[in-house]
C-alpha cells in the first residue's frame, strides 16, 4: 500500500475583499465581498513508504497549503487523500501519532521553558512511554548534537539551534511520515548540511517517508531522487530529478581544456562555436550550447583544436527550475 495517495485535491480560500476608504469600510459591515484564491487545483500523486520526495514550486505555488491538508490542519475544498490509510483532515489520533509537520518558519516549542520541558509536554500529548521517550531523546540528541541545548529556554537559542530542537521535538513520537516545510530556511550552510544529513539518516534508520519543500536546491539534490513540482496550484512535473533536468534544461555547457600554450585565435574559435559567447580561462574556455547542438559542437571542437580534456555539463538545478517556472508563468499569464 502507498504511504500517501492524493487524488484531485483542491483548496480554494475565500479572501475578504474591499477597497480603501471610509465608505468601503462601512459598506463592508453590511455586505462582505469575497474573492476566491485557488491555492491548490486538481493535484494528484502517490508516494511509497520510505521515499523522500522534494515538493517544489515558487512562492505562493500551493506547497504549504498541500502539506497542511496532508497533515490534517486544513480541509480541502474537494478531492481525496489517504496517508498511512487515514484521511488526514479527520484528525484521527492514530494518524496524528504517526506523522509530523515541521515548518521552518513556525515555532512549535514553548518559548519560555527549557527545551526538555517542551519535550515532556510532547511526551504527554503523544502518550510516549517513559523508556521510549528517554531512548529517543538520547538518540536524537546524539544525531543532532543537542546535549548542551536541552536545558536552555527556547528563547535563548540561536535560529539554527532552535531548528535542531524543533526537529527533534517533532520526532519524539517516531512518526512514519514527515512533512518538512522549509526546514533549513535562514540557516547557515553548515547547519543546513547538518539538518540534511540528519533527515537522510532518519529516513535510513526508520524507513519513514518524507515530503520536503525547500528553496535550497542543495537540500533537494542531497535528499530527493524524485521531485513533484507545482506552480499556480497545479501539478507541473512528477518524476526523477534527473528527468526534470533532462526534460527542461535548454542548454548544456561544454568545458574545454587545451594542450599547453596553444594560441587560441578568436576568429577560429568563433567559427567552431557558431559565434556563441565564450568564457575564457587560463587553460581553456567554456561555452553554452543548446542541448541538441552539443554533440555536433563538441565533435567540431575536438577535431579543430588540440583538446586535452572536454566535459559536457548539465546546468545547475537552480537554473533549470527557474526555466520551468518562467515557461509556465508565460503560459499561465499569457492565457
Ligand atoms: N489562509 C489563507 N487565506 C487566503 N489565502 C491564502 C491562505 N494561505 C495561503 N493563501 C494563498 O494561497 C496561495 C498558495 O499559498 P501557499 O502558502 O500554499 O504557497 P507556498 O507554495 O507554500 O508558498 P511559499 O513558498 O511562499 O511558502 C497563495 O496565493 C497564498 O497567498
TrEMBL record:
Which keywords has UniProt assigned to this entry? Antibiotic resistance, ATP-binding, Nucleotide-binding, Transport
Q: How does it sit in the membrane?
A: Peripheral membrane protein
Subcellular location(s) of the protein: Cell membrane
MF-aspect GO terms: ATP binding; ATP hydrolysis activity
Q: Which GO terms describe its biological process?
A: response to antibiotic
Q: Which InterPro entries match?
A: AAA+_ATPase (IPR003593), ABC_transporter-like_ATP-bd (IPR003439), ABC_transporter_ATP-binding (IPR050763), P-loop_NTPase (IPR027417)
Q: Which GO terms describe its cellular component?
A: plasma membrane
The ABC transporter domain, residue ranges: 24-257
Q: What is this protein called?
A: ATP-binding cassette domain-containing protein
Q: Which organism is it from?
A: Desertihabitans brevis
Q: What is the lineage of its organism?
A: Bacteria, Bacillati, Actinomycetota, Actinomycetes, Propionibacteriales
Amino acid at each position: 500500500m502507498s504511504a500517501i495517495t492524493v487524488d484531485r485535491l483542491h483548496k480554494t480560500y475565500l479572501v475578504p475583499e474591499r477597497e480603501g476608504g471610509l465608505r468601503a469600510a462601512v459598506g463592508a459591515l453590511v455586505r462582505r465581498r469575497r474573492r476566491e484564491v485557488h491555492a491548490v487545483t486538481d493535484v494528484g500523486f502517490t508516494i511509497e513508504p520510505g521515499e523522500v520526495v522534494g515538493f517544489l514550486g515558487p512562492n505562493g505555488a500551493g506547497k504549504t497549503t498541500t502539506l497542511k491538508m496532508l497533515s490534517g490542519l486544513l480541509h480541502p475544498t474537494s478531492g481525496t487523500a489517504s496517508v498511512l490509510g487515514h484521511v488526514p483532515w479527520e484528525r484521527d489520533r492514530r494518524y496524528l501519532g504517526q506523522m509530523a509537520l515541521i515548518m521552518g518558519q513556525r515555532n512549535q516549542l514553548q518559548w519560555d521553558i527549557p527545551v526538555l520541558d517542551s519535550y515532556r509536554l510532547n511526551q504527554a500529548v503523544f502518550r510516549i512511554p517513559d523508556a521510549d521517550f528517554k531512548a529517543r531523546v538520547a538518540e536524537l540528541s546524539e544525531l543532532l548534537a543537542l546535549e548542551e541545548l536541552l536545558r536552555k529556554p527556547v528563547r535563548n537559542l540561536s535560529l539554527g539551534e532552535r531548528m535542531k530542537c524543533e526537529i527533534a521535538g517533532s520526532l519524539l513520537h517516531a512518526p512514519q511520515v514527515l512533512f518538512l516545510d522549509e526546514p533549513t530556511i535562514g540557516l547557515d550552510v553548515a547547519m543546513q548540511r547538518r539538518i540534511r544529513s540528519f533527515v537522510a539518516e532518519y529516513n535510513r534508520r526508520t524507513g519513514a517517508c518524507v515530503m520536503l519543500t525547500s528553496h535550497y536546491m542543495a537540500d533537494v539534490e542531497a535528499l530527493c531522487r524524485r521531485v513533484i513540482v507545482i506552480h499556480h496550484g497545479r501539478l507541473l512535473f512528477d518524476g526523477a530529478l534527473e528527468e526534470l533536468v533532462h526534460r527542461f534544461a535548454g542548454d548544456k555547457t561544454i568545458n574545454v581544456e587545451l594542450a599547453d600554450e596553444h594560441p587560441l585565435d578568436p576568429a577560429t574559435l568563433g567559427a567552431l562555436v557558431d559565434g556563441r559567447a565564450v568564457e575564457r580561462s587560463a587553460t581553456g574556455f567554456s561555452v553554452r550550447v543548446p542541448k541538441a547542438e552539443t554533440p555536433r559542437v563538441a565533435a567540431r571542437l575536438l577535431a579543430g583544436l588540440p583538446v586535452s580534456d572536454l566535459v559536457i555539463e548539465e546546468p545547475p538545478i537552480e537554473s533549470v527550475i527557474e526555466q520551468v517556472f518562467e515557461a509556465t508563468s508565460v503560459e499561465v499569464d499569457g492565457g
